[in-house]
């Protein structure tokens, strides 16, 4: 064979080999692309499945909310009958005289419910001059939160005395009178009168020896006596009851108060005839404020998801505070975290590696959830920055940011609508859920709300208000007002000290 022919054959063979190799590479690349496309399609399907399931389990259609409100009314009635199995204990507050606006004089309040306490001074001047107030917030040293009862109350009494010494010329104690104090004590208490109650247990990081089972008013009074402070506790109140008192002082049509903050609770004015468990003499007003402790409301109608069930199981109080765990600021961010973790595991929401910080309980706080939810930038850059700060994810995709926004929206929407169902339940229990049909004028009904969740999470609070109106219907909604009562519990305690003053004239 000629050399040229051999060379030509070699070239052909090499070209064929190269072509075959190219075909092989193309096949491999094609298969990889197909696998990538299939993997991406599978990931997106898993993402869609999780989100669809989420939307179904968190759904709160109007008929469901009406059923929850009806269940709330049923449980309220059971609690008022002293049914031992009722989740709502419907605690009698012994507050039967609410502020009228006619109160005069100098009164103090002490609000103890967390790592800080507040002392408040109020000069009441009746309907014309209303209230002049001053307050201070005092941090509690950490060692006193786990010390003895004497140490804690002595510290509080000393700070209270220091505050009294700064009264100034705008505040005047009538001659011959003792100073009087309203004591807001936001821990579980078995109340036995307007000015006494025994501590059931400490919460919120407190673990103090020698107080459980004791009268907290007696503990404070003894400390004030040791301090030489001339002051008498005339009202022991829960913060929700204080909010109700502060609300009705500002607006006579307030009938209920709700706390929507880190925790949640509600109180309302009930006619004593509707309280079968009341055994004492009938109050002159004919009414009694009821502390619902509604965070413990439970019903099979509540739309609990797998995320809620797991959260409850892993909580410090499994089986308790079911309603609170679905609507309060302590838990909303944690529900969002659990959903994002599921999306990260099942659908690689944040890439191939699940962020380790996302595994940490309560790493996503509700204020962070609110900040992400309120991001209006076109690329959700603020939400992305939050995810970076909280989860350590340096670069989130636009898809991941929009899905996170959607999750925040669904969790907040459910919480707000469930809270609204509870408010509607109270209004319904009072018979104020319908417009009059006999031509009589509409009766204005006001629900005062306090708490950081309601005040600062605007997309949450606006949905609460819209849902209450939706449940009432157009005719009834025009006479029901849900409004902010900022810091009502502080002045409310001072006002209750005034309305239950030992110097009030009994006719």
TrEMBL record:
GO cellular component: cytosol; mitochondrion
Gene3D superfamilies: 3.30.420.40, 3.40.367.20
Keyword Cell inner membrane applies: no
Pfam families: Hexokinase_1, Hexokinase_2
PANTHER family linked to this entry: HEXOKINASE, HEXOKINASE-6
Family as reported in the entry's similarity comment: Belongs to the hexokinase family.
Name this polypeptide is given: Phosphotransferase
Organism taxonomic ancestry: Eukaryota, Viridiplantae, Streptophyta, Embryophyta, Tracheophyta
Gene: LOC606367
């Amino acid at each position: 064979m000629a050399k040229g022919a051999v060379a030509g054959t070699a070239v052909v063979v090499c070209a064929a080999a190269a072509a075959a190799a190219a075909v092989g590479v193309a096949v491999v690349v094609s298969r990889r692309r197909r696998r990538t496309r299939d993997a991406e399609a599978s990931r997106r399907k898993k993402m869609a499945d999780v989100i669809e399931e989420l939307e179904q389990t968190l759904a709160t259609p109007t008929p469901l909310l009406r059923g929850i409100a009806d269940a709330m009314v049923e449980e309220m009635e059971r609690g008022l009958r002293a049914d031992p199995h009722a989740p709502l204990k419907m605690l009698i507050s012994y507050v039967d005289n609410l502020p009228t606006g006619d109160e005069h004089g100098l009164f103090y309040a002490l609000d103890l419910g967390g790592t800080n306490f507040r002392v408040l001074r109020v000069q009441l001047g009746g309907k014309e001059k209303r209230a002049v107030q001053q307050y201070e917030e005092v941090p509690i040293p950490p060692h006193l939160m786990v010390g003895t009862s004497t140490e804690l109350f002595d510290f509080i009494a000393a700070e209270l005395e220091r505050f009294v010494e700064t009264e100034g010329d705008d505040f005047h104690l009538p001659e011959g009178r003792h100073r009087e104090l309203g004591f807001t004590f936001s821990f579980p208490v078995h109340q036995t009168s307007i000015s006494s109650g025994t501590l059931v247990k400490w919460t919120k990081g407190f673990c103090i020896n020698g107080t459980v089972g004791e009268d907290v008013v007696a503990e404070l009074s003894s400390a004030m006596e040791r301090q030489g402070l001339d002051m008498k506790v005339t009202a022991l109140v829960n913060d929700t009851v204080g909010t109700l008192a502060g609300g009705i002082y500002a607006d006579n049509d307030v009938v209920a108060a709700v706390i929507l903050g880190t925790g949640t609770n509600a109180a309302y004015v009930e006619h004593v005839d509707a309280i079968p468990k009341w055994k004492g003499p009938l109050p002159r007003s004919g009414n009694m404020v009821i502390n619902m402790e509604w965070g413990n409301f439970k019903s099979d109608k509540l739309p609990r998801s797998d995320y809620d069930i797991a959260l409850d199981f892993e909580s410090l109080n499994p089986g308790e505070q079911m309603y609170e765990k679905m609507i309060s600021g302590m838990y909303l961010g944690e529900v969002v975290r659990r959903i994002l973790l599921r999306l990260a595991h099942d659908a690689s929401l944040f890439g191939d590696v699940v962020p380790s910080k996302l595994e940490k309980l309560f790493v996503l706080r509700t204020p962070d959830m609110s900040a992400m939810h309120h991001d209006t930038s076109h690329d959700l850059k603020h939400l992305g920055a939050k995810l970076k700060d909280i989860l350590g994810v340096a670069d989130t995709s636009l898809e991941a940011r929009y899905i996170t926004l959607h999750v925040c929206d669904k969790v907040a929407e459910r919480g707000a609508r469930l809270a609204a169902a509870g408010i509607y339940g109270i209004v319904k229990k009072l018979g104020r859920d319908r417009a009059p049909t006999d031509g009589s004028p509409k009766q204005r009904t006001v629900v005062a709300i306090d708490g950081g969740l309601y005040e600062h999470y605007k997309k949450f609070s606006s949905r609460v208000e819209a849902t209450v109106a939706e449940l009432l219907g157009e005719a009834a909604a025009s006479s029901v007002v849900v409004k902010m009562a900022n810091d009502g519990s502080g002045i409310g305690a001072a006002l209750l000290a005034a309305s239950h003053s030992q110097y009030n004239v009994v006719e």
